[in-house]
Amino acid sequence: MENSSFLSSKLSEKIADFDFEKEITWKTRILLHTTMWLSFAILLFLSYRLAYDLTTFNSVILTIRMAVSNMTIFYLFFYVIAPKLFNQKLGIAMIILSVTLPLLTAIWLWITLGFSVLYHYLGYEIGFGELKGAITASAQQTFWGAVSVSRIISQTIIIISLLSPFFFVKILFEISKLYSKSLKMAKQNSQLQIQNINIEKDFLKSQLNPHFLFNTLNNLYSLSLKKDDKMSDMILNLSDTMSYTLYESNAERVPLTKEIEFIKNYVELEKMRHGEEKSISIILPNENETKGKTIAPLLTFSLIENAFKYGLKNKENAFLNLKIEVKDHQFSFNLENDFLPKTELKNFGGIGLENLKKRLQLIYPEEHTLLVTKNKNTFNVQLDIKL
């Protein structure tokens, strides 16, 4: 039982890791489809040649007629009709299916009629055997006579039996593709949960470290001695910041309004700690712009924290500029700050930046861009997310 479970998990992992979109390229698809229809044509040719004892030429022209008719129906169904069915409710999908199946049969019959008319015009005919005169008989049908109710019903059964192997292969391929996608999503969700736990631990260590609290409490003490009015605001900011990190940021998504409020509170605390002599600019979206939108919590915190930790060191030009915009479900984050040239670039990123990249890849795959640049003494981060 354990070996069976192990093999099953290994197989599931292999399927999840297989990238259908990457591995099954358009060249591979063309090769597979060509092989499939060539196999069908060869079997059909042999059927005409051996079962009906037709000449090679007659077997070829009938094979072409049948192959083209079946290929047309196959591609119309799977690449035109089927994608529309998946976007509908079951009842509507059944109605569409019940209408399109007879229509596809009619198209199949019309294509067959067209080939028969062409062959008859060119003088092709079967001169003996069970199919003697079949081309002429088919060509003499009227356009609407070829698609009578009785013929549609009988030919639908024939078409289904002819195409059932191809339908089976195609459906099996799509099921495998969906199964791989679902396994991949499950795997990513597991990784995301583990990642979120690790990030939460790292964040709490960073946010609640003694250095941060010590500096904040020192500032509070200084303000209390001066009886400064800013003291109450600072206490409230600290309380809101800790409340958010401890109780509200554990969800997969949080209201963007609360995330922006958290960023604002944290920056205000840092501004009080650094004093007015440092140039700190912050531009945040208003509540109307963030209302009703959600975002993964604490995505940008490590960037902001690093900016205050390693920036604002240049005595001649110490600055930190933070700008967040929200327009048309696009979250744009830009952070720029000074740093001392001797400071290594890795200090600005480290584990925090790597965790951010992983979270973005897991939560917002192909829906984000992150650009980190370092000039002579300026560090800049641009992050755009489609909410």
From TrEMBL:
- GO CC annotation terms, alphabetical: membrane
Q: Care to name a GO molecular-function term for this sequence?
A: phosphorelay sensor kinase activity
Q: Could you confirm whether the keyword Kinase appears in this record?
A: yes
Annotated transmembrane regions:
30-51, 57-78, 90-111, 152-173
Q: For the Signal transduction histidine kinase internal region domain, which residue ranges apply? A: 201-276
Q: Which InterPro entries match?
A: Bact_2-comp_sensor_kinase, Sig_transdc_His_kin_internal
Q: Which UniProt keywords apply?
A: Kinase, Membrane, Transferase, Transmembrane, Transmembrane helix
List the PANTHER family hit by this protein, alphabetically.
SENSOR HISTIDINE KINASE YPDA
Q: What is this protein called?
A: Histidine kinase
Q: Which organism is it from?
A: Soonwooa buanensis
